Amino acid sequence: MNDTAQQMPDEALPADAPAPLLTPDKAAHEPMVVVENLVFEYPGKRVLDNISFTLPRQSITALTGANGVGKTTLMRCLAALHTPFSGRLRVAGVDVVAAPRLCHRRIGYLADFFGLYDDLTVYQCLSHAARAHGVREPQAAQLCEGAIHRLGLQNHCNARAGQLSRGMRQRLAIGQAIVHEPEVLLLDEPASGLDPEARRNLSQLLLELRDYGMTLLVSSHILAELEEYSTHLLILRDSRHIHLQQITENDDHYERRLRLSLAEPRPDLAERLAQDRHVEGLESHEDAVTFLFHGGRAEQHALLRDLLENGFPVCCLSEEKLHLSDAYMRGIRNADAPRWSVEE
Fold first, then answer.
1. Looking at domain 254-321, which CATH architecture does it have?
2. How far apart are CA 58 and CA 270, in angstroms?
3. How many angstroms separate the Cα of 1 from the Cα of each of 136, 221, 291?
4. How far apart are CA 117 and CA 169, in angstroms?
5. How far is CA 203 from CA 33, 71, 138, 186, 198, in A?
6. pLDDT tens, position by position, 293-339
7. Which of 111, 261, 265, 295 is least surrounded by Cβ atoms within 10 Å, i.e. has the fewest?
8. What sign does the CA torsion over 24, 26, 31, 36 have?
9. How far apart are the first and last CA of the chain?
10. Who contacts 151 (Cβ-Cβ below 8 Å, separation ≥6)?
11. In angstroms, rounded to a whole number, what is the distance separating the alpha carbons of residues 22 and 255?
């Protein structure tokens, strides 16, 4: 194959470039991303003002907030493309400010407006990206083949990037971001411009990347497109307030919406439920109540037992799908707190 990327001289590559491999042997409880007291300023404007959060390993975190609030700036700081005014950032154990080149080997980043070399084939684009990250042959070829199979691009290897559909171009761009097998993947508005089928395929791809061992941070202001794959929600409300919340079940304690129905009406039901510290957001319906529950199965059992012992004719207690919009609105309501951590 006449591969432009493979003709690059080895002397152009850093001599100490390590093999970019995932590190699943690291302690699972250690956060993959740590941000402490981050401050970033453009001339005349402070965009990020003393924000802090951590992201767990092998999670998919939805980064959301109003347009212009600083989501892209935050992602570029994490990608070592912006230098913060002050604060500490660690990604995959690397100090982003002190070692930006090493950080680039540990992360993949896809900007909102990404670029492809339209005259190169799919394989050449991936090979060029691998070599740009310091991966030598024959490992570069092996990683390209792996990315092609992982992204379902087997039938497009020899197609030029400029001939691909929008969905396939998006997959190729993600391939360029992950071909060196980073531990962290940062995606800025990845579903922008995609049709419904391509969005569904993208969701499945992101879940597969998480299962492969990657930690993902995905920025978007469209909650519906984040709902299918996100495990955590990171809300950037303004320059100073950020809120991280777990939104999926990966242990016994997670936020969920419950629906409680009675065999006959009891006007004191809502008052009784409000006394439980695990209950909030009560909504009364014609024949039932719904509420957010923050506790484990044992606490849920205790609530049900209390209702039955006090004569409430419970006929059904079921779990409803908790939409990302529920978690977002809850985070907005609570955003006056000075610091945030993972909420379970």
1. 2-Layer Sandwich (3.30)
2. 39
3. 17, 42, 61
4. 11
5. 22, 20, 31, 15, 9
6. 888 888 999 999 999 999 999 999 988 765 666 666 565 555 544 44
7. 265
8. negative
9. 52
10. 171, 172, 174, 175, 205
11. 31
Q: Mean pLDDT across the stretch 22-42?
A: 78
Say which residue the tokens 């493309």 belong to.
81
Residue found under tokens 């012992």: 309
The two tokens of residue 78 are 């994490």
Of residues 298 and 184, more confidently modeled: 184
Q: Which of 63, 33, 70 lies closest to 49, judged by CA?
A: 70
Three-state secondary structure of the chain: CCCCHHHCCHHHCCCCCCCCCCCCCCCCCCCCEEEEEEEEEECCEEEEEEEEEEECCCCEEEEECCCCCCHHHHHHHHCCCCCCCEEEEEECCEECCCCHHHHHHHEEEECCCCCCCCCCEHHHHHHHHHHHCCCCCCHHHHHHHHHHHHCCCHHHCCCEHHHCCHHHHHHHHHHHHHCCCCCEEEEECCCCCCCHHHHHHHHHHHHHHHHHCCEEEEECCCHHHHCCCCCEEEEECCCCCEEEEECCCCCCCEEEEEEEEECCCCCCHHHHHHCCCCEEEEEECCCEEEEEEEECHHHHHHHHHHHHHCCCCEEEEEEECCCHHHHHHHHHHCCCCCCCCCEC
The domain spans of the chain are 28-117+166-246, 254-321
Name the strands in the sheet holding 45-55, side by side, starting at the edge strand that comes first in the sequence: 45-55, 33-42, 86-91, 94-95
Distance of CA 100 to the CA centre of its chain: 21
CATH number 3.40.50.300 is the correct assignment for the domain at 28-117+166-246: yes
Helical pair 166-178 and 139-150, crossing angle rounded to 10 deg: 140
What band does 175 get if pLDDT is binned at 50, 70 and 90? very high
The encoded tokens of residue 248 equal: 């999926």
